C-alpha cells in the first residue's frame, strides 16, 4: 500500500508539473513572444532535477546544440608517431596561409637538418589556394589559418591542429598613437564607425584601414573574432589589397594606417607597432584575438606526410613552433647521422662559421641613446630586443649617457645641473623593460657612456660648463669636422659629478650587466699647455670605479678604447693601470687593422664598425678573438644585425 500511494503521488506531482510548465510555456513563449533559446539553460536546470523524481521512464527533453564546435579529443584527431628515419630523397610540399610562413620556415630547416637528404618546399599563397592545390595534387600539405568547411571534409581532407596563434593589430611606427585600444574601438574602426585617430586619442588624421583580400584565412579569422562575422566597412578610407601579403601591409601603413597580421610575422619588425587590446599584448594567455592554425592532408596520408606530421606534433616540433612564433630562442635539433659522402662542403663551412660565431663570449651590437627617443613604448622596446636575439646577437650595448646628460631621470643631474635628463623624450621605464626582456632571452645589457667626459656646443650643459669654468682650455679635434670640449675631471666638482652619476646608475639599475666607456674617456694630446694629465686621469677613473663597485659589486666596468700605446700617448688614457674588468680594442682603422688585432687577442675582444663587416668572418674564425662588438656608424643597427646574420648563416 505505501508503495502504491507513493507511485500515485509521483504521477500526480508529474501531471501538476507538466500543467505548470505547459501554462508557463503558453504565457511566456506564445503570448509573450519570448525567445526560448535564452531560457533553455534555466529550463534544463529545472527539468533535470524534476525528471529524477519521476518513477516511470520518460525521455529527457531534447535541447538544441550550441554553435560551439565539439572539443578536439585524441579520438577525433589522427596521430602520427615521431619518424625514426625518413628515406633519402623524400620531398614534402607545403602551401597555404601567410600566417604560417615563419612556422613553415622553422620546421623546414629543422626537418631537413634532422633527416639528411630530405627536402621541404614551402609557399604561402593563402589558405584557400592551399586547399585547392592540395585537392589538385599540387601540394602534400595545406597550411591554413581557419577550420575546414564541411564540404572540404567530405572531400577527404583532414586538419591537424598545429598551434594557437595570435592576430596582432598593427600601426606604423610613425603613427602618433601611443596607447592601447579596446575591443569595442577596434570593432568600430574596422566597421567604419570610428574614422579619425583623434576619436581614440591619437593624432587628427583619417584612419586608413589596410585590409586583406577576401580569400585570406587571416582575414576570415579576424572577421570572426573581431566583427563576430559581421561586415568590414567599405568607405573611402578602406583599402583591400589584391595579394595576401604582410610585407605589402607594412609598407602601406605609414603614419595613419591600421591593419592586422599574425603576430609571428610582425614581432621583430621595426616598421610597425602592435597595439595592445584591452591592455593585453599578443603574447598574453588571455589575449582576445587568437585562433588555431592547421596542417591539412588528403586521406590516405602518404609516408612522407605521416613522417612530417609526426615530427610537427612531437615535443621537439612543438618547441620549434613556439620559438618561431616569437622569432627568438633557437631550439636544439637532433640530427641524424649522415654518411661522409652526403656532406656538402659549402654547407659544412657555413655550419662551422656559425658554430664559431656562437662560441664568441660576447656578440654585441651598439644602439645609440637616440634609439629610445620618441617615447618608444614597452612593446616596441621588447620587440627590438627579441629581434636582435633572432639575429644571433647576445649583448646589447645601449647608450645611457652622452653629451653631458643622462637618458634616464637622474636625481644627481637635477641637484647638480638643474635638470633631470637629456631633453630627448623617453619613457621612464625604458631601460628596465630592455634589461628585463634581454635577460628573458639570455642576453646581456651593457650601459654605454657615450662621449665620456667630452661635450660639444649642442650639449644642454655647455653654457653652464663655460660659466663654471669646467672645461679644459682648447678644442678637441680628434675627429675631423667635430669640435669637442673636455670636461676637466681634475676639478673636484666635475669628478664628483661623474662619480655620483656612476653610483646612482648602478643603484637605480641593479640588474645591469656592465657599464662601458669608450675612447672619449681621455684627453687630447694637442690641447694647449703641454700638460701631462695621465696620472690625474688614472686617479679619477680608479676612484670612480671604486665607488661604483662599492655600490654594486656585480656590475662589470669595461672600456672600449684604443690600443694601450695609442691611448696613453695621444689621450693620456693609461688604461692598463685602471681597475677595469674588461677591455675591447677599437679596430676602426682599416690601415692598422692587423696591428689592432694583435692587441685584441691579448684582451677581451675587438670592436668594429658596420663598414668593416667584410672582416667579420676573419674575426669569427680566429679563436683568439674572444668577443666581437659591432658599432653601426650608419645609424641603422637593425639592418646591420640582419647583415651580420646573413654573413654568419647564409
From TrEMBL:
Residue stretches making up the PBP domain: 87-315
Entry keyword Transmembrane helix: yes
Boundaries of every Glycosyl hydrolase-like domain copy: 361-525
Comp. bias intervals (Basic and acidic residues): 345-354
Annotated InterPro entries: Aldolase_TIM, GH, GHL10, PBP_domain, Phosphate_ABC_transporter
Region of interest: Disordered: 331-354
PANTHER family: PERIPLASMIC PHOSPHATE BINDING COMPONENT OF PHOSPHATE ABC TRANSPORTER, PHOSPHATE-BINDING PROTEIN PSTS
The protein's name in its UniProt record: ABC-type phosphate transport system periplasmic component-like protein
Protein's organism: Gloeothece verrucosa (strain PCC 7822) (Cyanothece sp. (strain PCC 7822))
